[in-house]
Q: What sequence folds into this?
């Protein structure tokens, strides 16, 4: 039986963060000054193994999960990631198996990922302006390298491909139309994401958020848009299509128009903690029971219980928050 949480929400998506390491230092996610050489990342032996991840994923699928996304940190930094994809692709019931990446390593891995059974990818690319993009990854990677990665993914058939762009006022908001125009008519779906107050290290301020309504108005002025219906209940992006038939875009408005009521996502951290909300400050350890020899049935019961007690709706309550609680970082849990 698929469990429902306290607000009647089912479990539909599982996001698996396979590493907390990254080859970028996007200031809105892993600011260089804080994630420098002295930063203590999770040790290898602390990470869930691929067999452990696949076992948990199978139990999650039994509880209603149909969509599995691998993320990080940068998931393509985890060694032999295709081995994990091969295990996940075998699970009956997974209708959508995807991965979010910064795209830098796609030229190397795209064909392997596709051959292992990955369905599609989302590539993060915040701007097509080289100077802006270099500032936003803060490790000197240029736009061309990511476009090459996107081409490699398209050639490998990892479609429909989505591009994620986090929008920050005064940083890349003047380059949104260029990004939309570049992918207009290509079949690639660009999704503009409101800058979120995830974690505690990115210096988030409400003033830095460009509201989704403003993003849509800005694109609409250059490339007229009309609203589209959600693909399924709980879809995070609001969909818009170009009136000229040039495809669609999405806007993820977790700050100005929260969507907790339809939130069907569970998140698994690299070392096996379950988080039922992106803004949680603590997770539930699943690695200890896994390694202590709990049976599938015992794990299933634990997951059912954890989901059943869930009442998270941080984004809806955000405006009422007066203090900032400690929170997990985006680079650890993966969005
Ligand atoms: N490294 C991979 C990447 O960048 O695609 C996967 C992990 S990254 C944490 C997942 C997504 O979260 C990316 O699209 C990234 O842009 C987004 N993200 C990170 N920090 C964010 C923030 N503060 N607000 C909104 N989105 C954020
Ligand atoms: Fe790395 Fe992705 Fe975070 Fe950028 S957004 S620092 S690429 S994990
Ligand atoms: Fe889901 Fe938490 Fe985000 Fe609300 S704030 S949509 S409950 S992850």
A:
């Amino acid at each position: 039986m698929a469990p429902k949480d306290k607000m009647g929400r089912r479990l539909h998506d599982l996001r698996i963060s396979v590493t907390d390491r990254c080859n970028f230092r996007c200031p809105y996610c892993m600011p260089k000054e804080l994630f420098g050489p002295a930063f203590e990342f999770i040790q290898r032996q602390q990470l869930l193994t691929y067999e452990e991840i696949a076992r948990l994923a199978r139990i999650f699928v039994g509880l209603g999960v149909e969509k599995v996304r691998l993320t990080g940190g940068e998931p393509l930094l985890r060694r032999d990631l295709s081995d994990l994809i091969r295990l996940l692709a075998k699970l009956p019931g997974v209708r959508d198996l995807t991965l979010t990446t910064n795209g830098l390593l796609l030229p190397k891995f795209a064909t392997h990922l596709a051959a292992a059974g990955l369905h599609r990818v989302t590539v993060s690319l915040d701007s097509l302006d080289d100077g802006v993009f270099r500032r936003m990854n803060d490790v000197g990677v240029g736009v061309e390298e990511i476009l090459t990665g996107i081409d490699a993914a398209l050639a490998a058939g990892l479609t429909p491909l989505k591009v994620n762009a986090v929008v920050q006022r005064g940083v890349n908001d003047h380059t949104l139309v260029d990004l939309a125009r570049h992918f207009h008519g290509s079949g690639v779906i660009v999704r503009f994401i409101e800058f979120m107050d995830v974690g505690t290290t990115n210096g988030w301020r409400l003033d830095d958020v460009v509201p989704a309504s403003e993003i849509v108005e800005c694109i609409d002025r250059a490339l007229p848009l009309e609203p589209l219906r959600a693909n399924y209940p709980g879809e995070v992006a609001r969909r818009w299509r170009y009136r000229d038939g040039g495809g669609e875009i999405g806007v993820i408005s977790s700050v100005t128009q929260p969507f907790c009521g339809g939130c069907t996502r569970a998140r698994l951290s690299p070392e096996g903690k379950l988080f039922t909300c992106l803004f949680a400050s603590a997770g539930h350890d699943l690695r200890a029971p896994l390694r202590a020899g709990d049976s599938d049935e015992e794990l299933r019961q634990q997951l059912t219980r954890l989901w059943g007690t869930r009442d998270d709706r941080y984004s809806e309550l955000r405006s009422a928050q007066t203090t900032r609680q400690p929170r997990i970082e985006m680079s650890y849990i993966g969005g």
